[in-house]
Amino acid sequence: MKLDATDLRYITSDEFRVLTAVEMGSKNHEVVPTPLIAQISGLRNGGVNKLLGALAKRNLVARVQNSRYDGYRLTYGGYDYLAMRALSKRDSMYSVGNQIGVGKESDIYIVADNEGKELVLKLHRLGRISFRAIKEKRDYMGKRKSASWMYMSRLAAQKEYAFMKVLHEHKFPVPRPVDQARHTILMEFIDAYPLRQVSELPSPGALYSQLMALIVRFAHAGLIHGDFNEFNILIRRESGEPIVIDFPQMVSTSHLNAEYYFNRDVQCIRTFFRRRFGYESALYPRFRSTLKDGEGREDKEGEEFRLDVVVSASGFKNSEQKVLEEVRVVSFCVRCCCFRC
Ligand code: ADP
Ligand code: MG
Questions:
Q1: Residue 122 bridge partners (DSSP)
Q2: What pLDDT is recorded for position 147?
């Protein structure tokens, strides 16, 4: 799907009101009936129909008409639009450039801010694959009738942003987070290539040790990345420094399955280094001894250093973590230990 930057500027204020009304109506309705859209937007019924038609033409909303429903739903395009408009209103971004990544659960674009500086916009796309499976887990949704893709994608973005902020503040090698709106996050563009693309290294052992040390550093801060692999490690073009990305699945070291996630992260790196560089080492971190080393988990200033706790306190609720985790379990591939295939 294409993102159209010009759309950001050329939408009438009435169209915007109707689009926002569809979004608001979506909180309680899978398909929002037209009279409700009219009511929320405070516009006349006839006028609303025309505006909805115009929005549908631009794929910002979609008409749904069947035996159960008659109305409109917000499309990903519409949600993208609302998020980007919010970001541009706050002067965080100005224009959209090329798409640089299509994951199963996100789209990545290069964008620019007002000064023409490149940034990365990540649009979360949860529910694209396993929406039905999520819906079967409704008990986790609390009072919500349906785990809509909008809600899940927004949670993923909020979680990722919360973690990136805390990690960046504590000088972990992660992109600098810039802003967050709805299901999107805006962050520093890293001039790098994924480790996946690296076919030769002068000294694989050096990078291997760096990556294992990073896993340990995360754990000492109470965190496990949870998807620590060659796709989510970027190698800076200039310095060769590894930068870690992609945080919606991070878990706390106090998580029930912490050991499993920790070992899987370690194993992913070991397997990759063996297959790609023929590099094997008897040295690799174990969950138990790692945590024992880090007992008390205090940083140099003696402050408590539990970033998992810091993130919880920053407003991303544990109950929301639970909802997200359910989705992750659903889309996790047991054959090759990844969330991709
Ligand atoms: P997904 O959840 O879809 O895997 P990622 O956050 O891993 O999303 O990003 C997908 C790809 O986009 C990465 O493998 C990387 O190539 C690129 N990418 C993501 N963030 C950045 C960034 N800040 N700077 C440069 N490239 C990035
Ligand atoms: Mg990724």
A1: 108, 185
A2: 52
- pTM beyond cutoff 0.90: no
Residue 335 C-alpha from the chain's centroid: 23
What protein residues have CB closer than 5 angstroms to ion ligand 2? 231-232, 246
Which residues 6+ apart lie within 8 Å of 207 measured at CB?
A: 201, 240, 242
Q: Tokens 């023409």 map to which residue?
A: 116
Distance CA 145, CA 293 (A): 45
Q: Alpha-carbon distance 24 to 205, whole Å? A: 53
Q: What is the C-alpha separation between 96 and 115, in angstroms, rounded?
A: 13
Asked about 227 being catalytic, the answer comes back as: yes
Residue nearest atom 10 in ligand 1 by C-alpha distance: 101
Q: How confident is the model at residue 143 (pLDDT cuts 50, 70, 90)?
A: very low
Q: Is the CB of 140 under 6 A from ligand 1?
A: no
68: Cα within 13 Å, side-chain hemisphere: 4
Pairing mode, strands 106-112 and 95-102: antiparallel
For 6, 213, 309, the CA distances from 299, given in Å and listed in that order, are: 48, 16, 14
Smallest CA separation from ligand 1 atom 26, residue: 190
Report d(CA 71, CA 36) in Å as an integer: 9
pLDDT band at 269 (very low <50, low <70, confident <90, very high): very high
Q: Whose CA is nearest to atom 7 of ligand 1?
A: 246
The H or E element spanning position 88 is: helix 76-89
Exposure pattern of 238-259 as b/e (b: 16+ CB <10 Å)? Answer: eeeebbbbbbbbbbbbebeebe
CA of 157 to the centre of ligand 2 (A): 13
Average pLDDT over residues 299-326: 66
